[in-house]
Known about the structure:
heterodimer; A: 383 residues; alpha+beta; Porin; 2 domains; three-stranded mixed β-sheet; 48% strand; elongated; B: 168 residues; Immunoglobulin-like; 11 strands
Amino acid sequence: MDSEEQKLIDEIKDRLHNFEIPYEEGNWENFQKLYGKGLNEVGRKSGKALFPWRYVAAAAALIGALIYLPWHRSGTDETRDERVVGYSGDEQPREMPDLPMSDDTNVKIEDVPNIGDHRSEKRTVSRSVINKKVSIAGVSSGISLPQPLLPPTSVSFEEPAGLLSRNDNALAVRDQQEPGGSPSGKWRFGVEMNASFRTDRPNVAAGILAQFDVSEKVKLSTGLTYSHISAMHSTHPVQLSYDTRIIGGESTIKAIDIPLTIVYEPVERWYASVGVSALAVLDEHKIYRMESEILRESATVDPESGASVSVFEVVRNEYNQESIETDFKGRSNLRYLNLSIGRKQRVNRTDLLVEPFVKIPMGGLQRGDVNLLNSGVRIKVMF
Amino acid sequence: MKKQLTCRLSGWMLICSTLFLFGCSKEKSGPDHEDPFRLEANLLMGNKLFVNTLESRHSDNTFEIREVVRKNDVLEVTVKGSDHAGSFQFIWDGRIQESYPMGIQLIMLYDGTDEDFDSNRAERISVNLQKIIGERNNVNEYHFNVINGSKIQTVTLNPDGTATTEDK
């Protein structure tokens, strides 16, 4: 019975396996008409779904790389895995001997057994690192490396225990930052505010700033400042009619100022800076100062002759008339040259900086009839 | 040494701050209010200018006022001694005498170049007095005194249309 059923199944399988419907002309076209639209939509949808994610992922990777790179660059120069020696208790630290070795010497160091981690490692040790003294809590005493033990070339400390642990010392390894720290430690952030007077309205600006310590004396500073600038138009009077003329103008600009400044600090707490800033004008309000002159007649009596006299006098009236046109809004190439000197005062962990400054208009801001030169005092707080 | 440098820097900062503060002073613009007021292209109003010109009526380019006539608001002065463009200015002291003898006084000045001045050339110079006369309807009763700015001479146009020349 089972074998008959199996035969039947095999026979059906064989027949179905070889079953074939002959292709008729136009079948494929009919199939495309029926299902082609749906197939295309599926393909498009999947393409759309992939499209943004690909770019989002790429952008995220790029931003991540940009954020990551500046904070970890040149790590070998600035952050070192140092072998340092600690001094404990009342024992005074002793100067390391001036080792007769080159600045960068390959030294094979085998850690002492009493640390418990008996491993051998090869490192680059510089003279400055060896000469450095760092106190570490928990380390019992200090050592000094005798001069003969460190030859000018590669040295292998195969049996360091006898040499290094004779004062019951322990070697500690820790990451230590060089003076100035890592790039992240070189960044400082703060706020600033400045005021200057060019018209009866003060120019005020406030913003945030970031400073990067290139070296102890040189720093790079940038920021983002919202500025409110008033500027006079130094034009010659223009007679519009016999009794009315333009005698000047005034522009009020609201702008975003992005400075890039080099700060030089030759002596402690005193500095000078020079830089440029790009200005993006958000809003501009321009007015013309007009003067009208009218004749006013008044009756009086001449004191000498006693005659009745009409005396004419000119009454001048100044007023402002708003201008439709603007000078700076929507224009590019608006720059300032920034010069300043200043003094820094440390208050707790915050730096308070006071600096007189002058901003000299450049590029598109340098117009003969609009005087955007301004100077005043800037106050910064750096955290 | 460091102290000296600090002192020097402090001094510089003080000087710079002073300069900045001067730089912050408010700008002054606008005309001088003592300026004469121009009523017409050849008519100025200014009491001080009038007085000063009256006291110095001597010029190398001397002309003579021959005739003064008025046609409504326009005063026509015929002179001998002029340039081809009739470059003259009238200065009004800004006063109208309203009691007898009612009238105004103007100083006439040659305003051209010495080279162009021809002492034998006769010209009729017109000046519009509408801004002085204004809405007055009794202007026919006014005397118009035209003072020669180049020499001592005053010609008065009387209400009846006649002109009187005086050496004053």
